Every structure is written in C-alpha cells, then in structure tokens.
Amino acid sequence: MVSLSEEMQALEKVGQELLKVMAKANAGKILKENLEKQEQMLARCLHTKKTTMQLIQELMSAEEQVAQKLSDRDEELKVTLQKLQKIEAKLLHAKEKDSELKSGTEEWRKELEALQEETDRRKATEEDLSSSLSAVYMSQLYYRICPVDWDDSCEPTLIKGVHHGPDVAQPFSIESGQHSRCFVSDYLWSLVPTSW
C-alpha cells in the first residue's frame, strides 16, 4: 500500500514534469493530460485515505471488542477460581469428616462384632442347653410312654428290642426290608398300652 507522503511526492514530481512540458511545444495538450492524471491520482489518494481511515476505525473497534472480551474472560476466570477454591476447601473438610467417621465407624463395627460374637455364644449355649434338656425330657417321656430297650448290636435292616409293658416284657424283632415304614410304626405303637 502506498503511503500518503509517497503519493504527495509523486504529485510534486508530476507538477514538475508539467512545468517542463509546458515549456515545450505541445504544452496545452500535455498539460490537459497531466491535469487529468493529477485529478485521478488525487481521487485515488482521497479514496485510499477514506478506506484507510475506515480500516483504522474498524481495527480499533475490533481491538476494543477483543479487549472487552479478554477483560470479561479474566473476570469469569477469577470467579471460577474462587468457586474452585471454595469447592476444594469443602472437599478437604468433607474428607476430614469422612476420615473421622470412618475411624468412629471402625470402632463401632469392632464393638458390634464383639457383641454379636457374645450373643452367638450365648445363643449357642442356650440352644445346647435347651437341646440337652429337650433331649433328656423327650427320652424320659418316650421311656415312660413306651419303655423299650433297643438292641443296637443287630444288623441295620433289623429292628430289635424288648418292650417292658406294665405286666410283662415283650421282645420284638422286625425285618425292615420286608415291611413298610407305616407297618413298622403301627406295630411299635401297638405295643404301647392305651390305659394309663
């Protein structure tokens, strides 16, 4: 792009050339042509100046907009950084509380496990005692209802023993493979006296 001072220098040269040409014979015609060229150059100069001013104004406006956007972004960044610092502080506080809760929870969990173990031991002891008492009671009850001495030395398929009734002891021997379970149960119950 040609600067304004360069164009002015070019106009001066043209003016000097005009003076030289006027001194010659065809001075009127050449003068007219040079004046037209000078008008065209002035018109181009004015147009260039106008365009340059417009470009400068647009550039300044764009610079202002960019500067404003940068300022806005800086402000947003500051606000965001402040929020981030607050969040980090809250997170640190929450981690500290979480750590305290975990240590407290761990102590409670150990206590709960110890209590659970104690409860399980007591329950097992009570169940064993209850089971033992129940077994003793049931065996005494069975013996009172049906006093039977079982023969454990016989073969597994043979049900053998002696029933001690109110009047007489009655031996029995049943082959379980030859009879149904229902028959064996009914037979054994038939040995129990119905009168009390």
Any low-confidence stretches, pLDDT <50, length ≥5? none
Q: What portion of residues belong to β-strands?
A: 5-15%
**Cα-atom radius of gyration:** 61 Å
- Major beta sheet summary: 3 strands, antiparallel
> Order of helices and strands, N to C?
HHEEEH
Oligomer: single chain
Total number of strands: 3
Count up the helices. Answer: 3
Spatial gap, N to C terminus: 136 Å
Structural class: mainly alpha
* Net shape: rod-shaped
Arrangement of strands in the largest sheet: 1-2-3
Mean pLDDT: 80
Helix content: over 70%
Reconstruct the topology from this structure.
Layout: H1 4-22, H2 27-145, E1 148-150, E2 158-164, E3 169-175, H3 181-190
Antiparallel strand pairs: 1-2, 2-3
Helix pairs in contact: 1-2
